[in-house]
Specification:
mainly alpha; 4 strands; membrane; four-stranded mixed sheet; Zn-dependent protease with chaperone function; globular; transmembrane; transmembrane helix
């Protein structure tokens, strides 16, 4: 399999030095998907580890060690395929496809397999309570199929090409490494719970204004610590303050990368307009740039013959 811009380092001239390459990649945010994923999850995962340390510290010696061992075992188990499936069931209520669902999705799965994004490359899961027509990637190889796609195929409301476009988009994102794995999601769960609880407070105008002006508080704090020569605490304040700016930036870049990776996969296989239809049915607002990207060089035909034509011989 060849290198792609979606999941590899951006190609650079051999004459460029390592430092110049690093600076250019950081400044343009042309970094690997794994690096973006870890950067976006750095603060949530650190918070989760801190919660574990605090809870373990409040327990007795044997119980604390047992909790730490259980966390390590769960992390190892969640890194496997079985663990990812169990985590998907808990996080998104995603279960294995039933016989009738497999029958309804068979034409779409056939199109997925023709472009190399179908089972067993990915594991399809059904989420009856999932709204919309757009499939969701989970972990490294799980695609969660919303109930509307299955019912639409059963009743002939949608075409197999539209269903395949929705599934291929999610499969490409999952395989690209943009999505956090089940183990990383476990460590980020306390942070996600905290964000959900604090959402009403964060929407208050005064709170939003205070957050936007945090740089002033940080500047005053750094100045006071420098005068007091408390260099260790100063370093901690600077790192935390920088994280409040860099992590949201990494999240935004990662969100754009997810769109670009999935869009590129459906466009190159002639399914761009069909995925655009799935977005429209789901009520997703599509920018002009993304609309042009999904419809570029992909004349919509009555049947997805272009999908078959782009598959290498002997696939």
């Amino acid at each position: 399999m060849g290198r792609t811009v979606a999941d590899k380092w951006t190609t650079t001239p051999h004459s460029a030095t390592g430092a110049a390459v690093f600076v250019r990649e950081v400044m343009t945010m042309q970094v690997p998907n794994r690096a973006l994923r870890l950067a976006a999850a750095s603060v949530p995962a650190t918070f989760g580890v801190s919660v574990l340390v605090v809870v373990a510290g409040a327990l007795h010696g044997a119980t604390a060690w047992a909790l730490a061992g259980l966390s390590a075992v769960m992390t190892l188990l969640l890194r496997g395929a079985a663990g990812e499936g169990a985590a998907g069931r808990m996080a998104m209520r995603a279960r294995r496809l039933s016989e009738s669902e497999q029958q309804a999705l068979r034409p779409a799965i056939a199109l997925m397999c023709r472009v190399g994004l179908g089972p067993p490359v990915v594991d399809l899961r059904s989420a009856p309570s999932r709204p919309g027509w757009v499939a969701t990637p989970f972990g490294r190889r799980t695609v969660v199929v919303p109930a509307a796609v299955v019912k639409g195929l059963q009743h002939g409301v949608v075409s197999p090409a539209m269903a395949a476009a929705s599934l291929c988009h999610a499969a490409a994102v999952a395989r690209s490494g943009c999505c956090p794995g089940a183990a990383l999601r476990m460590w980020c769960a306390p942070w996600a719970l905290l964000r959900a609880i604090s959402t009403p407070v964060r929407r208050l105008p005064l709170v939003r204004l205070a957050w936007q002006l945090r740089w002033a508080v940080v500047a005053v704090t750094v100045g006071q610590l420098a005068v007091a020569q408390q260099w260790g605490l100063l370093l901690v304040v600077v790192v935390v303050a920088a994280a409040t700016y860099l992590v949201p930036a990494a999240e935004r870049v990662l969100a754009r990368r997810v769109e670009e990776v999935g869009d590129a996969a459906v466009v190159v296989h002639g399914l761009g307009p069909y995925y655009l239809e799935a977005l429209a049915r789901s009520g997703v607002c599509v920018s002009v740039a993304r609309w042009e990207r999904l419809t570029a060089d992909t004349p919509r035909a009555g049947s997805p013959a272009r999908v078959v034509a782009l598959v290498p011989a002997g696939r």
